[in-house]
Design goal:
Blueprint lengths: L1 H8 L37 E13 L2 E4 L1 E3 L5 E14 L4 E16 L11 E12 L2 E8 L4 E13 L6 E6 L6 E5 L12 E12 L4 E11 L7 E2 L3 E12 L3 E12 L3 E2 L5 H5 L8 E14 L2 E7 L1 E12 L3 E12 L1
Antiparallel strand pairs: 1-4, 1-20, 2-3, 2-19, 4-5, 5-6, 5-7, 6-8, 7-8, 8-11, 9-10, 11-12, 12-14, 13-16, 14-15, 15-17, 17-18, 17-19, 18-20
Protein backbone atom coordinates (compact mmCIF):
# COMPACT_ATOMS: atom_id res chain seq x y z
CA UNK A 1 0.00 0.00 0.00
CA UNK A 2 2.77 2.41 0.86
CA UNK A 3 4.51 1.77 -2.44
CA UNK A 4 1.42 2.88 -4.36
CA UNK A 5 0.94 5.90 -2.13
CA UNK A 6 4.47 7.16 -2.75
CA UNK A 7 4.13 6.92 -6.49
CA UNK A 8 0.94 8.93 -6.39
CA UNK A 9 2.52 12.07 -5.02
CA UNK A 10 6.21 11.82 -5.84
CA UNK A 11 5.66 14.08 -8.83
CA UNK A 12 4.46 17.10 -6.90
CA UNK A 13 7.83 18.17 -5.48
CA UNK A 14 9.49 21.23 -6.89
CA UNK A 15 12.89 22.82 -6.53
CA UNK A 16 13.52 26.28 -5.11
CA UNK A 17 16.50 27.53 -7.04
CA UNK A 18 15.52 31.11 -6.25
CA UNK A 19 14.29 30.95 -2.70
CA UNK A 20 15.76 34.43 -2.46
CA UNK A 21 14.54 35.56 -5.88
CA UNK A 22 13.13 38.80 -4.46
CA UNK A 23 16.20 39.59 -2.37
CA UNK A 24 16.67 42.89 -4.20
CA UNK A 25 16.96 44.21 -7.74
CA UNK A 26 20.62 45.02 -7.41
CA UNK A 27 21.22 42.65 -4.55
CA UNK A 28 18.93 39.81 -5.55
CA UNK A 29 20.03 36.47 -4.17
CA UNK A 30 20.74 33.39 -6.22
CA UNK A 31 18.90 31.35 -3.66
CA UNK A 32 19.40 27.83 -2.47
CA UNK A 33 18.55 25.03 -4.88
CA UNK A 34 16.81 22.40 -2.77
CA UNK A 35 13.74 20.26 -2.86
CA UNK A 36 12.25 22.69 -0.40
CA UNK A 37 8.84 22.82 -2.03
CA UNK A 38 8.72 19.04 -1.95
CA UNK A 39 5.69 17.32 -0.55
CA UNK A 40 7.43 14.06 0.16
CA UNK A 41 7.61 11.60 2.99
CA UNK A 42 9.98 8.63 3.11
CA UNK A 43 10.79 5.76 0.76
CA UNK A 44 10.16 2.09 1.41
CA UNK A 45 13.10 0.28 3.03
CA UNK A 46 15.60 -0.72 0.34
CA UNK A 47 13.99 1.53 -2.27
CA UNK A 48 16.01 4.05 -4.29
CA UNK A 49 14.83 7.12 -6.15
CA UNK A 50 16.54 9.05 -8.93
CA UNK A 51 14.73 12.26 -9.82
CA UNK A 52 15.50 15.27 -11.95
CA UNK A 53 13.61 18.38 -12.96
CA UNK A 54 14.10 21.45 -15.07
CA UNK A 55 12.90 24.84 -13.89
CA UNK A 56 12.52 27.96 -15.99
CA UNK A 57 12.07 31.36 -14.32
CA UNK A 58 11.74 34.79 -15.88
CA UNK A 59 10.49 38.23 -14.91
CA UNK A 60 10.34 41.75 -16.27
CA UNK A 61 8.10 42.94 -13.45
CA UNK A 62 9.26 45.24 -10.64
CA UNK A 63 7.65 46.25 -7.37
CA UNK A 64 8.01 48.72 -4.55
CA UNK A 65 6.11 47.36 -1.59
CA UNK A 66 3.02 45.71 -3.10
CA UNK A 67 2.75 48.10 -6.06
CA UNK A 68 4.16 47.71 -9.55
CA UNK A 69 6.80 50.20 -10.57
CA UNK A 70 8.95 51.19 -13.55
CA UNK A 71 11.67 48.80 -14.62
CA UNK A 72 15.06 49.04 -12.96
CA UNK A 73 16.54 46.75 -15.60
CA UNK A 74 15.00 44.99 -18.58
CA UNK A 75 14.52 41.42 -17.31
CA UNK A 76 15.85 38.47 -15.35
CA UNK A 77 15.88 34.81 -16.45
CA UNK A 78 17.25 31.52 -15.15
CA UNK A 79 17.30 27.90 -16.32
CA UNK A 80 18.01 25.37 -13.62
CA UNK A 81 18.52 21.60 -13.58
CA UNK A 82 18.02 19.85 -10.25
CA UNK A 83 18.89 16.21 -9.44
CA UNK A 84 18.17 14.08 -6.39
CA UNK A 85 19.37 10.63 -5.32
CA UNK A 86 17.53 9.12 -2.33
CA UNK A 87 17.56 5.76 -0.53
CA UNK A 88 15.24 4.19 2.03
CA UNK A 89 17.61 3.08 4.81
CA UNK A 90 14.75 1.76 6.97
CA UNK A 91 10.98 1.95 6.74
CA UNK A 92 11.15 5.24 8.66
CA UNK A 93 14.45 6.80 7.53
CA UNK A 94 15.33 8.09 4.07
CA UNK A 95 18.61 9.75 3.12
CA UNK A 96 18.98 11.93 0.03
CA UNK A 97 21.78 13.81 -1.74
CA UNK A 98 20.60 16.69 -3.89
CA UNK A 99 22.29 19.21 -6.13
CA UNK A 100 21.62 21.58 -9.00
CA UNK A 101 23.22 23.23 -11.99
CA UNK A 102 22.27 26.59 -13.49
CA UNK A 103 22.38 26.32 -17.26
CA UNK A 104 22.00 30.07 -17.43
CA UNK A 105 21.28 33.06 -15.19
CA UNK A 106 20.89 36.33 -17.06
CA UNK A 107 20.17 39.90 -16.01
CA UNK A 108 19.49 42.20 -18.98
CA UNK A 109 19.94 45.95 -18.56
CA UNK A 110 17.67 48.63 -20.00
CA UNK A 111 18.24 49.55 -23.64
CA UNK A 112 21.19 51.93 -24.09
CA UNK A 113 20.55 54.34 -26.97
CA UNK A 114 24.27 55.22 -27.17
CA UNK A 115 25.41 51.62 -27.46
CA UNK A 116 22.23 50.73 -29.35
CA UNK A 117 22.03 47.55 -27.28
CA UNK A 118 21.07 46.07 -23.93
CA UNK A 119 23.96 44.75 -21.89
CA UNK A 120 23.69 41.37 -20.17
CA UNK A 121 25.26 39.95 -17.04
CA UNK A 122 25.37 36.15 -17.25
CA UNK A 123 26.63 33.16 -15.34
CA UNK A 124 26.21 29.40 -15.20
CA UNK A 125 27.54 26.52 -13.16
CA UNK A 126 26.96 24.14 -10.29
CA UNK A 127 25.13 25.54 -7.29
CA UNK A 128 24.96 23.65 -3.98
CA UNK A 129 25.10 20.17 -2.46
CA UNK A 130 22.33 19.29 -0.01
CA UNK A 131 22.43 16.41 2.48
CA UNK A 132 18.83 15.81 3.53
CA UNK A 133 17.71 12.94 5.83
CA UNK A 134 13.98 12.54 6.54
CA UNK A 135 12.31 10.47 9.27
CA UNK A 136 8.73 9.22 9.65
CA UNK A 137 7.47 10.17 13.11
CA UNK A 138 3.89 8.96 12.52
CA UNK A 139 2.74 6.41 9.98
CA UNK A 140 -0.75 4.92 10.39
CA UNK A 141 -2.68 3.12 7.68
CA UNK A 142 -6.22 1.68 7.66
CA UNK A 143 -8.63 0.72 4.89
CA UNK A 144 -10.23 4.15 5.05
CA UNK A 145 -7.35 6.55 5.63
CA UNK A 146 -3.64 7.01 5.89
CA UNK A 147 -1.84 9.49 8.19
CA UNK A 148 1.85 10.30 7.95
CA UNK A 149 4.10 12.87 9.63
CA UNK A 150 7.68 13.25 8.36
CA UNK A 151 10.39 15.59 9.64
CA UNK A 152 13.75 16.38 8.07
CA UNK A 153 16.92 18.27 8.90
CA UNK A 154 19.27 19.13 6.05
CA UNK A 155 22.55 20.89 5.42
CA UNK A 156 23.48 22.91 2.34
CA UNK A 157 27.09 23.15 1.15
CA UNK A 158 27.95 25.72 -1.56
CA UNK A 159 29.88 24.22 -4.47
CA UNK A 160 29.61 26.92 -7.09
CA UNK A 161 30.93 30.47 -7.20
CA UNK A 162 29.36 33.45 -5.45
CA UNK A 163 32.11 35.85 -6.60
CA UNK A 164 31.70 35.83 -10.39
CA UNK A 165 32.74 39.19 -11.80
CA UNK A 166 31.76 41.35 -14.76
CA UNK A 167 33.61 43.92 -16.89
CA UNK A 168 32.60 47.49 -16.01
CA UNK A 169 35.25 49.62 -17.70
CA UNK A 170 38.00 49.40 -20.32
CA UNK A 171 40.62 52.16 -20.46
CA UNK A 172 40.62 53.42 -24.09
CA UNK A 173 44.30 54.37 -23.91
CA UNK A 174 45.88 51.40 -22.13
CA UNK A 175 43.23 48.77 -22.73
CA UNK A 176 43.27 47.90 -19.04
CA UNK A 177 40.03 46.27 -17.94
CA UNK A 178 38.26 46.83 -14.61
CA UNK A 179 35.97 44.19 -13.12
CA UNK A 180 33.53 44.15 -10.22
CA UNK A 181 31.52 41.44 -8.44
CA UNK A 182 28.35 40.54 -10.35
CA UNK A 183 24.96 41.02 -8.63
CA UNK A 184 23.99 38.12 -6.32
CA UNK A 185 20.96 37.58 -8.54
CA UNK A 186 23.16 36.02 -11.23
CA UNK A 187 25.59 34.10 -9.00
CA UNK A 188 25.21 30.27 -9.15
CA UNK A 189 25.13 30.13 -5.34
CA UNK A 190 24.89 32.55 -2.43
CA UNK A 191 28.08 31.03 -0.97
CA UNK A 192 26.76 30.28 2.51
CA UNK A 193 26.41 27.10 4.55
CA UNK A 194 22.75 26.75 5.53
CA UNK A 195 20.65 24.54 7.80
CA UNK A 196 17.29 23.26 6.57
CA UNK A 197 14.31 22.26 8.72
CA UNK A 198 11.40 20.43 7.10
CA UNK A 199 8.05 18.92 8.11
CA UNK A 200 5.48 17.07 6.00
CA UNK A 201 1.97 15.95 7.04
CA UNK A 202 -0.13 13.65 4.85
CA UNK A 203 -3.79 12.71 5.22
CA UNK A 204 -4.99 10.34 2.52
CA UNK A 205 -8.24 8.55 1.65
CA UNK A 206 -7.26 5.49 -0.46
CA UNK A 207 -10.76 4.44 -1.54
CA UNK A 208 -11.55 7.89 -2.86
CA UNK A 209 -8.06 8.38 -4.39
CA UNK A 210 -8.02 11.73 -2.63
CA UNK A 211 -5.40 13.24 -0.34
CA UNK A 212 -4.64 16.37 1.65
CA UNK A 213 -1.15 17.28 2.78
CA UNK A 214 0.91 20.18 4.04
CA UNK A 215 4.57 21.01 4.42
CA UNK A 216 6.69 23.59 6.20
CA UNK A 217 10.24 24.62 5.39
CA UNK A 218 12.74 26.83 7.18
CA UNK A 219 16.25 27.69 5.91
CA UNK A 220 18.66 29.29 8.36
CA UNK A 221 21.28 31.14 6.34
CA UNK A 222 24.92 31.54 7.16
CA UNK A 223 27.28 34.29 5.97
CA UNK A 224 29.44 34.03 2.87
CA UNK A 225 33.03 35.18 2.31
CA UNK A 226 31.88 38.63 1.10
CA UNK A 227 30.25 39.38 4.45
CA UNK A 228 26.71 38.88 3.13
CA UNK A 229 24.12 37.04 5.21
CA UNK A 230 21.08 36.37 3.08
CA UNK A 231 17.76 36.45 4.89
CA UNK A 232 16.32 33.27 6.42
CA UNK A 233 13.60 31.64 4.31
CA UNK A 234 10.30 30.20 5.61
CA UNK A 235 7.36 28.70 3.73
CA UNK A 236 4.15 26.79 4.38
CA UNK A 237 2.33 24.87 1.64
CA UNK A 238 -1.19 23.37 1.60
CA UNK A 239 -2.07 20.71 -1.01
CA UNK A 240 -5.11 18.82 -2.25
CA UNK A 241 -4.72 15.99 -4.76
CA UNK A 242 -6.86 13.55 -6.70
CA UNK A 243 -5.84 10.49 -8.75
CA UNK A 244 -7.75 9.40 -11.85
CA UNK A 245 -7.52 5.93 -13.38
CA UNK A 246 -4.63 5.06 -10.99
CA UNK A 247 -2.12 6.90 -13.18
CA UNK A 248 -3.05 10.55 -13.69
CA UNK A 249 -2.83 12.82 -10.63
CA UNK A 250 -3.86 16.45 -10.27
CA UNK A 251 -2.72 18.50 -7.28
CA UNK A 252 -3.46 22.08 -6.27
CA UNK A 253 -1.10 23.96 -3.97
CA UNK A 254 -1.30 27.26 -2.11
CA UNK A 255 1.99 28.42 -0.59
CA UNK A 256 3.02 31.32 1.60
CA UNK A 257 6.66 32.45 1.77
CA UNK A 258 8.64 34.92 3.83
CA UNK A 259 12.23 36.02 3.18
CA UNK A 260 14.04 38.05 5.80
CA UNK A 261 16.19 41.02 4.71
CA UNK A 262 19.83 40.55 3.75
CA UNK A 263 22.28 41.82 6.39
CA UNK A 264 25.96 42.74 6.39
CA UNK A 265 28.46 41.02 8.68
CA UNK A 266 30.53 43.34 10.91
CA UNK A 267 28.78 46.42 9.44
CA UNK A 268 30.45 46.01 6.04
CA UNK A 269 29.24 48.61 3.54
CA UNK A 270 27.83 46.24 0.91
CA UNK A 271 26.46 49.10 -1.19
CA UNK A 272 29.88 50.70 -1.60
CA UNK A 273 31.77 47.44 -2.09
CA UNK A 274 29.38 45.35 -4.20
CA UNK A 275 26.45 47.65 -5.10
CA UNK A 276 24.16 45.59 -2.83
CA UNK A 277 21.34 47.68 -1.34
CA UNK A 278 20.22 45.85 1.82
CA UNK A 279 17.21 48.19 2.09
CA UNK A 280 15.83 46.51 -1.04
CA UNK A 281 15.90 42.95 0.27
CA UNK A 282 13.31 40.71 1.88
CA UNK A 283 9.77 39.87 0.76
CA UNK A 284 6.50 38.07 1.42
CA UNK A 285 4.55 36.11 -1.17
CA UNK A 286 1.45 33.95 -1.64
CA UNK A 287 1.31 31.75 -4.74
CA UNK A 288 -0.93 29.14 -6.36
CA UNK A 289 0.52 26.12 -8.20
CA UNK A 290 -1.56 23.62 -10.22
CA UNK A 291 0.41 20.41 -10.73
CA UNK A 292 -0.13 17.33 -12.88
CA UNK A 293 1.72 14.01 -12.85
CA UNK A 294 1.47 10.71 -14.71
CA UNK A 295 2.64 7.38 -13.29
CA UNK A 296 3.72 4.38 -15.38
CA UNK A 297 5.02 1.46 -13.36
CA UNK A 298 7.99 2.92 -11.45
CA UNK A 299 8.25 6.08 -13.56
CA UNK A 300 6.56 9.43 -12.90
CA UNK A 301 6.60 12.51 -15.10
CA UNK A 302 5.20 15.80 -13.84
CA UNK A 303 4.80 19.49 -14.47
CA UNK A 304 3.62 22.55 -12.59
CA UNK A 305 3.29 26.29 -13.00
CA UNK A 306 3.53 28.85 -10.22
CA UNK A 307 1.09 31.80 -10.21
CA UNK A 308 1.99 34.62 -7.78
CA UNK A 309 -1.22 35.86 -6.12
CA UNK A 310 0.28 38.45 -3.79
CA UNK A 311 3.79 39.76 -3.26
CA UNK A 312 5.22 42.45 -1.02
CA UNK A 313 8.88 43.47 -1.30
CA UNK A 314 11.01 45.79 0.81
CA UNK A 315 12.39 48.73 -1.14
CA UNK A 316 12.43 48.26 -4.91
CA UNK A 317 12.98 44.80 -6.37
CA UNK A 318 12.35 42.52 -9.31
CA UNK A 319 9.16 40.57 -8.58
CA UNK A 320 8.04 37.02 -9.33
CA UNK A 321 6.31 36.46 -12.65
CA UNK A 322 6.84 33.19 -14.55
CA UNK A 323 7.99 29.87 -13.06
CA UNK A 324 7.57 26.53 -14.85
CA UNK A 325 8.88 23.17 -13.61
CA UNK A 326 8.89 19.82 -15.43
CA UNK A 327 10.59 16.62 -14.35
CA UNK A 328 10.80 12.86 -14.04
CA UNK A 329 11.22 10.44 -11.15
CA UNK A 330 12.28 6.76 -11.20
CA UNK A 331 12.04 4.43 -8.20
CA UNK A 332 13.36 0.90 -7.88
CA UNK A 333 14.52 -1.65 -5.30
CA UNK A 334 18.14 -2.66 -4.91
Amino acid sequence: MKKIHILLFCGVFLALPDALFAQGCCSGGSGSPIAGGASQGVLVEGQMEVASNFQFMSSDRFKSGAKDMAKLFESYQSQYLYTKLAYGVTKNLTLSIESGYFLNKTQTSLFDSVLNASEQVQSSGISDLILFPRYDVINKTTDKKRVELTVGLGYKIPLGSHTDSMLVYTNPLTGQETYTISPPLVQPTNGSHDFIGYAFYYWGFPKQNFRLFANALYIQRGANSLGEKFGDYASVGLFAGKTFDKKLSVTLQVKGENIAPLTAVDNIDLLALYNVDVASTGSRKISFSPQISYNHKTWTVFGLYDFPLYEYVRGAQVASQHQLTVGVSYRFFL
